[in-house]
Write a structure and sequence with these properties.
single chain; 293 residues; alpha/beta; 8-stranded parallel beta barrel; 12 strands; binds orotidine-5'-monophosphate; lyase; decarboxylase
Length: 293
């Protein structure tokens, strides 16, 4: 299997930097699919995968929205992951894990190792508990050609509460990224980029530029574009000029492409499909234009 970094880079190169979030928010699954039930969530998620095909190369399902439906929700997630794999999409699982090493091994078995019940290409990790909690994920990523996505500077308003606090003269998020340097090296692909991805919110373009200086080769996952208010230029602030294009990761959007105008009111599947595929295509075109051709 090729390295995760190469698969992600190739997908973004082919389709553009958009990563489509799969976030079945409470109460927002149209009645067309059966509403906000495990079956409705599954049908909606499968339709989202169909809508992404040929328009973007990467998806990011948010585990919480499936977990809230118990085991039936997790069954829906599994089926959506299988469909995404069959469609050749790169899957970033947004579950924000992070625990002592021995427990982290459990998350590795759930998401990253061969035969994992929730197969994905990479998993989001909260680094708060320390490097030893990230290590099992990185070791598994090396072994199975997967990626590890570490929260660095998140997109939410409270990201400054802890992440921007000074630690020995620099913000904590910078110290975290400095400490990750050896792991960034270990997950480098043939493309030269690393599958030790960093989350840097589109809402903090200055911080993204700083992170790019500290980790020139780490691929970025950039949430906050769309529903959280950031535009394409802000989302690409931490990307690097390569030839005539900005490259260096993916920009995720969930609500803006999951529930665009016209999709909730659609009374046919075709009507829903048109609203959603247009929103995905428009977001992709916006990002591609901002990245340069
Ligand atoms: O790890 C993430 O994906 C993430 C990190 C972050 O800093 N901010 C953030 O919004 N996210 C996720 O990205 C998605 C953003 O959704 P929208 O605001 O609807 O585009 C949600 O699934 C969040 O959980």
């Amino acid at each position: 299997m090729s390295a995760f970094a190469d698969r992600l880079f190739e997908a973004a190169d082919r389709f553009g930097p958009l990563c489509v979030g799969i976030d079945p928010h409470e109460g927002r699954i149209p009645a067309l699919f059966g509403g906000d039930t495990p079956e409705g969530v599954e049908r909606w998620g499968l339709a989202m995968v169909e809508a992404v095909k040929g328009r973007a190369g990467v998806i990011k399902p948010q585990s919480a929205f499936f977990e809230r439906h118990g085991w039936q929700g997790m069954r829906a997630l599994t089926r959506i992951l299988e469909a995404a794999r069959e469609a050749g999409l790169v899957v970033l699982m947004d579950a924000k894990r992070g625990d002592i090493g021995s427990t982290a091994q459990g998350y590795v078995s759930a998401f990253l190792e061969a035969g994992a019940p929730f197969p994905c290409d990479a998993l989001t990790i909260n680094p708060y508990m320390g490097l030893d909690t990230i290590e099992p994920h990185v070791a598994a990523a090396e072994q199975y050609g997967k990626g590890v996505i570490v929260l660095a500077r998140t997109s939410n308003p409270g990201s400054a509460d802890f992440q921007s606090k000074s630690l020995e003269g620099a913000p904590l998020f910078e110290r975290v990224v400095e400490a990750l340097a050896p792991m960034v090296e270990r997950l480098k692909g043939d493309c030269g980029w690393s599958g030790l991805m960093l989350v840097t919110g589109a809402t903090g373009p200055e911080e993204a530029r700083r992170l790019r200086e500290l980790a020139p080769d780490a691929l970025f996952l950039v949430p906050g574009y769309g529903a959280q208010g950031a535009g394409a230029a802000e989302a690409l602030a931490g990307f690097r000029q390569q030839g005539n294009r900005l490259v260096g990761g993916v920009v995720s959007a969930s609500r803006s492409v999951n529930f665009p105008a016209g999709s909730a009111e659609a009374d046919t599947l075709d009507g829903w499909r048109i609203a959603v595929t247009e929103a995905i295509a428009a977001a992709q075109a916006d990002l591609v234009a901002a990245a340069g051709t």
